[in-house]
Amino acid sequence: MRRKIIAGNWKMNLTLPEAKAIASGLKEKVSSQTAVEVMVFPSALHLHAVAEILSGSPVITGAQNAYPAVLTAMTGEICPAQLSDFGIKTILVGHSERRQFLGETSEICNEKIKFFLNSGVRVVYCIGETLAERESQNTFTVLKDQIKKGLFGIESAKFKDLVIAYEPVWAIGTGKVATPEQAEEAHAFVRKEIGALFVGADKVAESIQILYGGSVKPDNIASLLAKPNIDGGLVGGASQKLDSFLGLIK
Ligand code: 13P
């Protein structure tokens, strides 16, 4: 049985007081009795404060990005060893904004995923097609390529620390959510492709959590989660207000 996850990606939004206020609200309302696993991905600048507020709470604080190396000369970057000072052991990889605007390819994602998993970090790997790719009937080719390249060479035993987030780019921040049927079709495909990665991968495919992201709101989350292959949501806008974040968790 795959546990559902509600993850909030705060992107480059929120001031420090705003981030702290949401974290405090989550700390108050989310308990070990909460059915879903809750994660937040604040700006790197806010990680320390947010992780401190959420310490002792089941809410997981994760980083939106990191560099795949140990402590070294790499100006402007942060690495898992530094994140672990704050107890941070979860990292997003391959968000479409990083793919589109910062040149993060599936090959770079693969390097990061391997390094982070080998460092004992849990990874949420984001994939998804653009509107042009969907309209030209290339959705499944793109997803297959992102899975094959991004997950190339990852050992079976490491998959327990891997979560996939399917985020169609055309649904991100647009208010245009994929229908539960469109999302389910993509999730089922992703699960099938993971199952074909290596001999015996069908078991990891069955247990891996696949989140949907793209204009998820409290009023559409239930219909998405009702689908058999949708194991949670990676949420931008609606996670950046305490009320709607709590609405999603409920
Ligand atoms: P929105 O929920 O704002 O569409 O963002 C989705 C997203 O990119 C989460 O990573």
UniProtKB/TrEMBL annotation:
<dbReference type="GO" id="GO:0005829">
    <property type="term" value="C:cytosol"/>
</dbReference>
<keyword id="KW-0413">Isomerase</keyword>
<dbReference type="InterPro" id="IPR022896">
    <property type="entry name" value="TrioseP_Isoase_bac/euk"/>
</dbReference>
<feature type="binding site">
    <location>
        <begin position="9"/>
        <end position="11"/>
    </location>
    <ligand>
        <name>substrate</name>
    </ligand>
</feature>
<comment type="similarity">
    <text>Belongs to the triosephosphate isomerase family.</text>
</comment>
<comment type="pathway">
    <text>Carbohydrate degradation; glycolysis; D-glyceraldehyde 3-phosphate from glycerone phosphate: step 1/1.</text>
</comment>
<dbReference type="GO" id="GO:0006096">
    <property type="term" value="P:glycolytic process"/>
</dbReference>
<keyword id="KW-0963">Cytoplasm</keyword>
<comment type="subunit">
    <text>Homodimer.</text>
</comment>
<comment type="function">
    <text>Involved in the gluconeogenesis. Catalyzes stereospecifically the conversion of dihydroxyacetone phosphate (DHAP) to D-glyceraldehyde-3-phosphate (G3P).</text>
</comment>
<protein>
    <recommendedName>
        <fullName>Triosephosphate isomerase</fullName>
        <ecNumber>5.3.1.1</ecNumber>
    </recommendedName>
</protein>
<dbReference type="Pfam" id="PF00121">
    <property type="entry name" value="TIM"/>
</dbReference>
<feature type="binding site">
    <location>
        <position position="215"/>
    </location>
    <ligand>
        <name>substrate</name>
    </ligand>
</feature>
<feature type="active site" description="Proton acceptor">
    <location>
        <position position="167"/>
    </location>
</feature>
<keyword id="KW-0324">Glycolysis</keyword>
<feature type="binding site">
    <location>
        <position position="173"/>
    </location>
    <ligand>
        <name>substrate</name>
    </ligand>
</feature>
<feature type="active site" description="Electrophile">
    <location>
        <position position="95"/>
    </location>
</feature>
<dbReference type="InterPro" id="IPR013785">
    <property type="entry name" value="Aldolase_TIM"/>
</dbReference>
<dbReference type="InterPro" id="IPR035990">
    <property type="entry name" value="TIM_sf"/>
</dbReference>
<comment type="pathway">
    <text>Carbohydrate biosynthesis; gluconeogenesis.</text>
</comment>
<dbReference type="GO" id="GO:0046166">
    <property type="term" value="P:glyceraldehyde-3-phosphate biosynthetic process"/>
</dbReference>
<dbReference type="InterPro" id="IPR000652">
    <property type="entry name" value="Triosephosphate_isomerase"/>
</dbReference>
<keyword id="KW-0312">Gluconeogenesis</keyword>
<dbReference type="GO" id="GO:0004807">
    <property type="term" value="F:triose-phosphate isomerase activity"/>
</dbReference>
<feature type="binding site">
    <location>
        <begin position="236"/>
        <end position="237"/>
    </location>
    <ligand>
        <name>substrate</name>
    </ligand>
</feature>
<dbReference type="InterPro" id="IPR020861">
    <property type="entry name" value="Triosephosphate_isomerase_AS"/>
</dbReference>
<dbReference type="GO" id="GO:0019563">
    <property type="term" value="P:glycerol catabolic process"/>
</dbReference>
<dbReference type="GO" id="GO:0006094">
    <property type="term" value="P:gluconeogenesis"/>
</dbReference>
